[in-house]
Design a protein that fits this description.
The protein is an alpha+beta fold and 140 residues long. The protein has helices spanning 2-59, 96-103; strands at residues 64-73, 83-91, 114-119, 122-130.
């Protein structure tokens, strides 16, 4: 009879250990998911920047890219979301309208997410898209 009581205690201890460790396992999985999402978001921003640069170079004649900037995170400062931001500064002999016309094959221009403007240093192409894991911890 003592042996049965010992086996029952081992079984109860095992169940209790599983119950205590379950929240920690869930927390660990959540952290891994968040880290995975951050990695995917940064890769997405890198790819967006790479593609935009390539599209500019193949569409606009005599282009000289002077600065490339990209950022992954909450770029607007409002809400809990993650953006992929790319800004490319370049110079060319082409006009603003020629640039917009050529790049409209690849991008839909808007006031906030995608636009080209003329600056003192040249032209600025601004592209801001939602990240694949938009509700990631980076956006908070």
């Amino acid at each position: 009879m003592c042996m049965d009581m010992g086996a029952e205690m081992k079984h109860i201890k095992r169940i209790f250990t599983i119950m205590i460790s379950f929240p920690f396992v869930l927390l660990g999985l959540f952290i891994l998911y968040s880290l995975f999402g951050m990695g995917v978001n940064h890769i997405s921003t890198y790819r967006q920047t790479k593609v935009l640069k390539a599209n500019l170079e193949k569409t606009i004649e005599h282009i000289q890219i002077t600065d490339v900037y990209s950022e992954t995170g909450n770029t607007s400062g409002t809400g809990n979301h993650v953006d992929c931001l790319t800004r490319i500064l370049f110079s060319t002999d082409s006009s603003l309208e020629e640039i917009k016309e050529g790049m409209s094959r690849y991008y839909e221009f808007s006031e906030w997410g995608c636009f080209v403007e003329e600056t003192e240093e040249g032209y600025l192409f601004y592209l801001n898209t939602s990240a694949p894991f938009a509700d990631n911890i980076e956006g908070h």
